[in-house]
Amino acid sequence: MSTTSNRKTNPDACPHASKCGGCQLQNMTYDRQLRWKQHLAVKLLGEFGHVEPIVGMDDPYHYRNKVQAAFGRRRDGTIVSGVYQSGTHRIVPVDDCMIEDETADAIITDIRGMLRAYRITVYDERNGTGFLRHVLVRRGFSTGEVMVVLVATTDRFPTKKPFVSELLSRHPEITTLVLNVNPKDTNLVLGDRETVLYGRGWIEDELCGLTFRISPGSFYQINPVQTEILYRTAISWAELDGGSTVVDAYCGIGTIGLAAASGAGQVIGVELNRSAVKDAISNARNNGITNARFYSGDAGEFMRAMAEDGMKADVVFMDPPRAGSSKTFIDSVAVLQPEKVVYISCNPETQARDLRFFAEKGYRVRRIRPVDMFPWTNHIETVCCLYHQKKDFITGPYEPKDAMYLKRPK
Ligand code: SAH
To answer: Count of CB atoms within 10 A of residue 158's CB?
Structure first.
């Protein structure tokens, strides 16, 4: 895929596309991308019911509020920063990405320019030497707060003070600066140790009228505009009645559960990542929400424990990672038997697999809608609402095509 050939079909194509590979749909105009995604969603999920039209973005540029740049050195000694070429560890220098936040890109470019003056070396993964591996920038879309995370091989950083003070004077919008230490030979960006160099060590953002605290290691949706649409869709489809017991599984920092809390009796969130759970707990407190509790652990095991303890759930929101959910999880949901399951997915292939498991357990799909969270890339996000078919509604084993013609249960 070369820039020239992309431009034949998309005059807006990014000049870095052929080397970077981060945006797979550069050869299509945005309208065409939406049609392509809709087509794929129908292909993968159409057997479960009508796929409503994808919700696209009005302005599909610079939507990524989290930007991560790898640092390295060319053979001639020049320091480069950018993204890894798809499937390799070669860094493609990118300073002006059409999907990344522009403030974040400007900060990263400036950091690169400052390295030599402060004698900051960059990591060489061939022999494990050097200091700076990555810079991660996150910007709160509504609050404008900016977090910069320097990922380095060690916390020995002799020029720390003057470097931090120059960076802050160049970019007063930075509200916190964190040094993350990752000495390991690994593909993971962040290591386990952290030192806060400036500010609180986290940023806040607003979503669905609530304020959320986001730590460096916590998952947070990267496209805030579309996230709000996605969550509002999910919550409205759940038709909460004020007294419902709601489970927010794979809850991250608690965003969906907390946004749903005002319509629920109680919210129970579960998430594997401990720092995200801590964020979720403080997010509940800071928003004055008293009917939400968060637990850390595997969502499947947690649901099994809930089922074994004879607990009840009326609505389950689930938002698993790309690999999808697990049989343990779905088996346990079947025991808890909530009336509704709202399944948000960033991978319609694993979602389709899981919907088949759900179908075997008597759950039928009522609505499916894709929301374009990742313009220019081939990633598809979908939200899907399932209802448990009351016994008199189950007519026999699951037949994919039947699901399309089922009447809406009252
Ligand atoms: N609902 C959240 C997070 C969705 S991303 C949001 O919208 O922001 C998926 C989350 O699932 C991540 O936070 C990840 O840490 C978590 N996760 C991954 N595997 C898990 C598991 N087995 N059990 C519980 N949570 C898991």
So the answer is: 11
